[in-house]
């Protein structure tokens, strides 16, 4: 018999702040994978091109950026071929924004399930992030294909060993997006107005990160605040890994990583504390 | 095993929306001040869905919860299922628990039947290996094997429900919590599910908590029943006693009226009705009417007609849906002026379960309607079945008990 006189579980009025039950999460591993599978299958049902869209979306976006920011606005791209320049930023940014947008609607979108059955709610946002991770993996393959195409074409590009860190950059992006998403999800469930504001904030955030312009364009006096954005060192490092011999901005990468994981921890704690209470107000 | 201690739950009433932020700030502010909660708007805008619920369910016990809509049954099941939190109290439990508050939770319309079996199974807490093992059984149970690779959006609603039920029926927890899910599906399939449920509780020693309006199911499946009323448990005990108490308390029957007591006798110059009564001849000392109960109808009226002639009374029985069940005339009587008593016996095993009302018509010389006493009696007939493996609604207006005999014939 264990400490509670033989009782194995307990339901009480209050959930603690840190009751992240890893064992329980692992028990629901099958559900997590099934959610990812569901989203993959469902997103390409009744589309003619199916999974090809995963490739086409970043290509289209890059093409638009190329026309507007490179050709029309003539923003420099650090001497990198514009298409190659835009792809990493687009891929990382889209990943961040997709993960965030998906996870922040966790409660609103899944209320019909959450109202009928219990499982650790964290499974759902984790599933969203995994689903988008699957997409970004495919997009990386696309990127490498385009990259090789340019490399064979004899363009002035400098691959280096930092490339091996790309998965780490993606992991940090995921942590940052999931953390933000979890925190926001708790509040959008109650105050739907937030959704409208967030669309706007996201758009601003994109231009605050070096997605369509190089970091070198930022004036010195704004440099610190610009680099404190966790996405900035991630996108810049991604580029320099493929295009230059510049050393990685390790200091800012460290800050980015610390910030992201701090936000993630905060998000998980808040989410876990509120996950059931929220069902009464949704 | 489950033990609930002092469970209460309040809900905020009214529309949640534009006002929530303001209200939250207000609540937060008041909570800071010492004269908190109960004195402010809280008491007015909140409702206690459950109040101090205590109960204990032993291993292998099947417990049914009865109660009207809004009595708190579903809230209680939701708390046990960890979908919503109690405001006070705690629930302790032992054993893997699964809740069936709905069948087919999380079904995705774009996915095939096969994918949905896995998806729904995982959502209900089954592991992949477990579903792999039971997959054929589930498919067999559902009867949709031909459509396994078709997206469920192409399913008929019947097929959809069957598939959903099939997964649910193969859950294998130690504690099963079931809300009124048996109300869907065709009767044959319902029978199959209840049979499955019965075998689950009986043979495998599972603990089951369930809510139902189906008295038949409660009577034959439960070891114990509890009545919830306005968020409190008001009775608990052997199903038959608890169900009796529930049926007696809940119904608005109108089993008789002695009009002389309030001095106004309905009628006209020819007929004045003094009294109408329905006298059920209760069986087993349970004071409610079920399909076996003979019903005696008795009425008294003053008859006042100067010229000679004859009188017929007719008893009209209607279902509450308004169907005219029967029109039962008396013989033709030539009566003197004065008080008359009428009486009639509706035998047991005649009416099907349902709600009924009675009107009485008084007719002179077969054609002249003297008076029509409309809906003077109303009553409910409860279902009763001896051997229950099926609990669906028994079809038909009447429910006779004529013997049907099968005799094997020799083949030539």
Give the arrangement of secondary structure elements.
The complex is a heterodimer of chains A (282) and B (412).
Chain A: E1 9-12, H1 22-27, H2 29-43, H3 52-72, H4 82-104, H5 106-114, H6 123-152, H7 166-188, H8 193-208, H9 223-228, H10 231-243, H11 250-274
Chain B: E1 2-12, H1 20-32, H2 42-45, E2 46-57, E3 62-66, H3 73-80, E4 88-93, E5 97-100, H4 113-123, H5 128-142, H6 157-169, E6 175-178, H7 187-204, E7 207-211, H8 215-221, E8 224-229, E9 232-237, H9 239-250, E10 256-258, E11 271-280, E12 295-303, E13 311-319, E14 324-329, E15 338-346, E16 354-364, E17 368-381
Parallel strand pairs in B: 3-7, 3-8, 5-6, 6-7
Antiparallel strand pairs in B: 1-2, 1-4, 8-9, 10-11, 11-12, 12-15, 13-14, 13-16, 16-17
Helix pairs in contact in B: 4-5, 4-6, 5-6, 6-7
Task: Give a written overview of the molecule.
In chain A, 66% of the residues lie in helices and 1% in strands. Chain A has helices spanning 22-27, 29-43, 52-72, 82-104, 106-114, 123-152, 166-188, 193-208, 223-228, 231-243, 250-274, and one strand at residues 9-12. Chain B is built from 9 helices and 17 strands. In chain B, the strands form 4 sheets. A 6-stranded mixed β-sheet of chain B has the order 5-6-7-3-8-9, with helices on both faces. Chain B has a 4-stranded antiparallel β-sheet with strand order 10-11-12-15, with no helix packed on it. Chain B has a 4-stranded antiparallel β-sheet with strand order 14-13-16-17, with no helix packed on it. In chain B, a hairpin with a 4-residue loop joins strand 13 and strand 14. The longest helix of chain B is centred in the middle third of the chain and has 18 residues, at 187-204. Residues 33-42 of chain B have low confidence and may be disordered. At the A-B interface, strand 1, helix 2 and helix 5 of A face strand 1, strand 4 and helix 4 of B. Strand 1 of chain A pairs antiparallel with strand 4 of chain B, so a sheet runs across the interface.
